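Thread: "does anyone have the structure for this chain?"

Original post by V.I.:
We have the sequence but no experimental structure in hand. Need at least a predicted one for the grant figures.
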Amino acid sequence: MNLYGLIGFPLTHSFSKRYFTDKFTREKIKESSYELFEIKSLEELPELLKQKHGLRGLNVTIPYKKDVIAYLDDLDDASAERIGAVNTIKIYADGSTKGFNTDYYGFQQSLIEWLDKRGESCSNFKALILGNGGAAKAVQVALKDLQMEYMLVSRQNSDDCVPYEGLTQEIMDNYRLIINTTPLGTYPNTEECPMIPYQWVTRNHYLYDLVYNPAETLFLKKGSEQGAATMNGLKMLELQAEKAWEIWTTEENLWSV
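Reply from O.Q.:
Generated one for you, tokens below.
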């Protein structure tokens, strides 16, 4: 039996388990299962790797995407090393481990496809990245590789971040792609949203929320009410999950969009 799973804490609900269980059924993938491994500390990871025979790969979620790096044998330099975070671990036959970041691929590819469907090109945009956590790091690297200029927006004012209250109408007019990488608005806290000046959002703006539950967050709803194009994080999740599966089931891992 080939075993795959998700590590994190807490694991109250899991897109990954549902997605891969459905995938195994739909594609008639035999002798494979996906489990949730709720661990309170990464110190539990080495024992998990020893105990679970047939473990071929793991997804990693909050709060371990950065700290898990110290527990791995190797890092993919095209994704995880550059980003400084891991959301996918490949476990080889000899028990060695290698970390990847498929959030990078999922975000970048979903953005390209979304803009293309609307007759737009990445070269037409500058982006505001809301938040400065682990998810934001993957978005930054993806945008750099697309040669898209971006500005970080955070609650804290720093050398590389603009505070929310520092967003002027001029900035909003120039940065038409707004990406929420924070968990604000995630179920069950659906009445929360990033505090950007929504009155300056127009039909020329594109709002992308990495949150997928609910399907329309308050951030997206406020943008839609101003005429902006909107998209949630479901497509990104699906793409990163398929990239994880490719990594787990092939020896060579090609990182190209």
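V.I.: this helps a lot. The first strand starts at residue 2 and ends at 8.
O.Q.: and The mean pLDDT is 94.
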